[in-house]
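Let us walk through a complete example step by step. Step one is to write down the protein sequence. Step two is to encode the small molecule, zinc ion, as a SMILES string so that its atoms and bonds are unambiguous. Step three, shown after the inputs, is the structure prediction itself.
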Amino acid sequence: MNGFHIDMNGALYPKQYLVKWLEELADLNYDTILWEVENGIQWETCPECVAPDAFSKSEFKEILQISRDLGFENIPLFQTIGHAEYVLKNKEYLYLSELSDNFQQYCPLKDEVKGFLNTWIHEYYEIFGDVKYFHIGADEAYNLGECSDCKEKATNSSLSKLYIDHINETIKPILEKGSIPIIWADMVLHHFDALDSLDKRILLFDWNYGKHNKVDTLHIWGKKNVAFNNIPEETMKEFGDYIFPDKNSTPEIFYTADYLANKGFQVVTCPASSHYGDNIFASRAQLHFDNCFDSIAKSKQSHLSGFMLTSWTVHMFPWELQRIFIAIPSFLKENPNGAQEEYKKWYENKYFQASLPSFWKAVDLISTPVLGSRTRDTVHNKSNLKIEKEAFSTQLQKAETTTESTKLNQTIKEFEEALSLFQKVRNENSNNTYEVDHWILATKNLITRSQGTLQLLGENQKDNNTILKTSQELKTETEKMYQDKLSPIRRSEIIHWIYDSFHHALEN
Ligand SMILES: [Zn+2]
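Step three: the predicted structure of the complex.
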């Protein structure tokens, strides 16, 4: 599988933009599209949760047909335990929730949940047709075992058993349809004691945003990052043979894929071209380069079944700014042992027909996550796109002023250097100015946002009004940039999220 994940949790892409990118992805040798459509289709099972500018069923079927005509295998992704905020926040569906004051998760022990999911799965089939694969999400079910019934079951058996019984039940209609069910692998890696009872017909998507180079910690589900020399005993007992396959070698960062394959599952590795922790305007480039190269190389090993490149829209930089990662698999197909430096030359040649070292330097210079531009500073969350006016100021009050000011002063210099490099690339090359203009706009946003944040921390640089005026102009320019990339209502929600609370802080 050479897959690309289209995430419409945050974004809602218009048909033309989707078709343009499907054509590009076909050109880049992708063969599978994972469609996370969430509330982006006019569902009958849950009409209350449908987005105001959601696709009609016939519109979306047309897009899927175009995708099939381009040679893609379409995989629907429907969340069946966690990430259910878009449903459960509607009071009509609260009875399906694990908790009455938290909308993240369905209760796996409620009979009504089973019926509700089953009906919706059939509605997915009505739109997607007879698919080869059906992905039921099932990642990050963080309220597992919290209601009284679930707590009792978990006490009598385990959280792992509670989760796996739910998965084995949920996949029944999918198996009846003759499709291969898929889940994200994080929950069974976090709670692994009942793993032997998980249906082996399930394909596991093992998302891991790690890399090999210059790391001294290992990601362990349920424990975050742990130093190589401090891996807990229970982890070593279960995973040790896979973490240190050769006793003298450095640890295998992608050990979970080997572990799951050895348990008898088909496994697909999942790198990311964008994920939580990036700035909202542009990503941590080196991290994504390393992760994509290492994860895709891993996916080529004979006991694994391919890769799925995830592209999370918790950040709103468009695919134009992720293409530097999205094109990596195509390069690796032509050059299986190709290095990153060769890739950059290949990319320059393909998209710019010129040598552009300044471009890559600039991309790197705007990679640092910085206060005021990260998702958590802009308080976006999936259950509420409307942001409180005071949200940006409130977040800023939690910041450690001296450290953050020093860091901002340094990164602003780097962002300004990047801007002049991008402008140089723009002036010297007439090819692909479209892509470079996106990078220039992202860099201007980062500079102005950082100057404003610094100002709000009490470091006088410019006056509030000058920064506010520039940021208002960037808001207009960014909204224009998104014109062809986001549906109108979603676009205004996103623009509101990115700018309004920041501007409110500057006005006061
Ligand atoms: Zn429950």
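Step four is interpretation. The chain is about 50% helix and 10% strand.
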